[in-house]
Q: What sequence folds into this?
């Protein structure tokens, strides 16, 4: 029986980690598609770039995370935990990509270079999400995160022709560096906001439970 409980914990905890990685891209894609219906700007990401980012920050990491042993006690609400981990990454992707789009439109920068900039920013966000999902770090998770970061850098610097990355001019390099440096701040700020929201929800839920329990107790009929 102990083995069955342990296996159940492993499956649920690992699915929760992997699901958060997959939902990041879905949240970003849905929100960007909705905004694109009302805004007139070029779609900032290529499908080929999304495939690379998904493979290195979602597919490969989730495969290895799903196979590792995990006997931690299941905590909190499953779906709420997944969304709390996924939404900061999805919103960060949306914010930083729209910032890059804004720079391109305002300063009339080359649109064809926007794809490379957006892919770079989304790769960084994906690695930040993976960093959070891997906590608490073990030796295997450190190796996994390091390999995914190294593989992402290798694709950008040595496989640019394969993934159709283009050389950036000075103006776009400045845009990339500026938004790149802001990305961790945006991500961790959103992470803290969702953590605070989760704490407030738990406190409100506890208060309501106590209040309802007290009201029910007062409504009880006295024994005959």
A:
């Amino acid at each position: 029986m102990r083995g069955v409980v342990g296996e159940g914990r492993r499956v649920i905890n690992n699915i929760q980690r992997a699901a958060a990685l997959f939902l990041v891209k879905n949240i970003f894609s849905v929100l960007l598609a909705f905004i694109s219906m009302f805004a007139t700007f070029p779609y900032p990401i290529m499908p080929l770039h999304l495939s690379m980012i998904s493979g290195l920050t979602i597919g490969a990491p989730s495969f290895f995370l799903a196979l590792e042993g995990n006997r931690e006690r299941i905590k909190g609400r499953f779906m709420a935990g997944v969304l709390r981990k996924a939404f900061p990454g999805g919103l960060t992707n949306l914010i930083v990509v729209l910032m890059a789009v804004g720079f391109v439109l305002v300063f009339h920068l080359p649109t064809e270079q926007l794809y490379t900039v957006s892919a770079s920013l989304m790769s960084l966000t994906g690695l930040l999400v993976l960093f959070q999902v891997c906590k608490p770090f073990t030796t295997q998770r450190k190796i996994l995160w390091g390999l995914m970061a190294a593989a992402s850098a290798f694709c950008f610097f040595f496989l640019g022709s394969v993934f159709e990355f283009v050389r950036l001019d000075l103006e776009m390099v400045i845009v990339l560096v500026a938004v790149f440096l802001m990305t961790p701040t945006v991500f961790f700020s959103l992470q803290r906001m969702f953590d605070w929201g989760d704490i407030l929800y738990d406190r409100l839920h506890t208060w309501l439970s106590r209040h309802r329990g007290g009201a029910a107790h007062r409504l009880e009929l006295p024994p005959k």
